Amino acid sequence: MSNRARDRWCKRADTLERSLPSGVLLLPARGDDVILLAGTGRELWGLLTEPRSTDELTAELARRYAGDASNIRADIEAVLTELERDGVVGEEA
Amino acid sequence: VTAKNTLAVASLAYGLPGSGVEFPGEVGRVEWERGHRAVVLAGLTGMLSAAAHDGAVTLDEEQQADLTETNINAQRAALRLEQRLLEVSDFFGRGSIEHRVLKGAATAHLDYPAPDLRPFSDIDLLIHARDLDEAIAALESRGGQRRFDEPRTGFAARFSKAVCVVSDDGIEVDLHRSLAEGPFGLTMAPEELFESRESFVLAGRKLDALGPAERLIHACCHAVLGRPEPELRPQRDVAQLALAETVDRDRVEQLSERWRCRAVVAQAIRLTWGTLALPADDAWHRWAVTYVPDRFERRALRNYGDAPQQSYARQAIGGTLAVRGLGDKVRYAFALAFPKRSYVGSRDRGYGRRLVRGVRLWLRSARPRARADRPVPDTGIKNS
């Protein structure tokens, strides 16, 4: 994953979404499962409105939560991998 | 769900400028059970969730958990419908079947501050009458099944409000020819509904809806012509549109006059203003309380709402008075009097039962005529 740190991630334009008080619901254009992102997952999703690298995402969430950057990076990478597999995020061309 | 449940009505009115409806101070256990059920049935979980999130209503932990769960379910269903809407719209687009998105997704994205405030439960598309049979066949080719057969071949494309096609996963797509069942649906000129449009973007795709004035007229039809007791959510749709600056009042009046449904708009405004306790001095309301329906409108209205003879069959019979041209009147009446066997089987389980029901309807409709013909406008105001 580290060689992907410079890749820029963004929401896929064909993702359907609903922002709720309890989180954000996502449904890929051709997927079956609706995904619920709550808490920091929701914040991460909000940041992906614009293409951002893992480094940039890590820096922004570390600033907001004053947390350990390496832990935050590991969490972000895990979530991004899952969201990419679900078809709701992609890398900017 | 009618205007009887205070939690549902307060949810309905939440965030609407000028509304005098407020949430109850505390929501007790019994009130919550009834109220929450009413909110779910009325499709108002989005409104109540927003109100709870903003602190307009105080819920305990258990109530909040109930609401979070039911709202997520409602929104999840709406997303699946949007996904199907995109597929169907794509499919129709490839077949050059022009369409407009009605109600649900269009209303949620165009007329509310955020789409989660207005979940929905089916897909409605307006189709040109000339394309209706092709659109039905297209959905059937993908596994859809028509819910009801038509009385005679070609009846739906010429006279019906809509045809419902159900897919094998239970999602319903209503293909509309017009905006209302019965007389008011038949006096509309459906082709004129395609003359204006407003677009919205869904998952990067642009979809066309009706123009704002047409959306308001449709919301009014839904509010007062849909069910025997008016539903709540269409009333909020009426308020959202009527209070929006994007709706051209003159266009609403012109279209509703041409389609002979000004009485429907007036009744929907009076009903909505009453339920939501909106200011009585608003221009829409001032017009609505003074509007006197003409003879056609009075007779047509008898087929809808809580009128004693309200039913689909009654609306269909009442439609005879609105069908234009002698040839079409004869075709319409003949199709209803002598429908094909498959239609009778699905609706009446046989010609004998159909005959008995027809006579009963005729007898019932004959009785209250003298009283219902009187042109007395009802102000509908409960809270002003």
What does this entry look like structurally?
The complex is a heterodimer of chains A (93) and B (384). Helices cover 41% and strands 24% of the residues of chain A. With 93 residues, chain A is of the alpha+beta class. In chain A, a hairpin with a 7-residue loop joins strand 3 (23-27) and strand 4. In chain A, helix 2 packs across helix 3 (69-86). The radius of gyration of chain A is 13 Å and the shape is globular. The two termini of chain A are 18 Å apart. Chain B has 384 residues and is an alpha+beta fold. Helix content of chain B is 53%, strand content 8%. In chain B, helix 9 runs antiparallel to helix 10, helix 9 (212-225) packs across helix 11 (249-258) and helix 12 (262-275) crosses helix 13 (283-290). The two termini of chain B are 22 Å apart. The relative contact order of chain B is 0.11. Classes of the chains: A alpha+beta (93), B alpha+beta (384). Chain A binds chain B through residues 13-22, 25, 27, 29, 34, 36, and chain B through 46, 49-50, 52-53, 68, 71-72, 75-76, 78-80, 82-83, 86, 114-116, 202-205.
Main sheet properties of chain A: 3 strands, antiparallel
* Structure summary, number of beta strands of chain A: 6
What fraction strand of chain B?
5-15%
Largest sheet of chain B: 5 strands, mixed
Number of strands of chain B: 7
Structural class, judged by helices and strands of chain A? alpha+beta
